[in-house]
Amino acid sequence: MSFIEKIRKNLGEDEKEDEPFIPDEFEHEIEDFFETPLSYDISLIRPQSMDDIVFVFNQIVDEGNPVIVDLGFLEEEKFDTYQIALEKIDFLRQEYDVESILLCKTSNQNIILLAPSRIEIVKNE
Question: What is the pTM of this model?
Fold first, then answer.
């Protein structure tokens, strides 16, 4: 018996509980609700090459996952690639309705959240 199982048994959580009664007409709706879990892989990346920019693009467009991008390195070290990255972000915003939010801008960081349109971002003032 594992440590967690011992704790559960001591707390009485190991005992079987009666399952709640669910009418037959709602059983199918509940199963449908739980079959589509909402989970996203959120990548945090500091791109250093065009391959990294392509990865960001694929995560958003193909996978539908949000990405947090720090463009600080490109801005300081590879200005041409930085310009291309900004063009790609603009393209994502226009063609794929991607939302972009500047999270932080300092001398060595330029952190942007990019999220596909199916993910709603709530902004609190």
Answer: 0.66
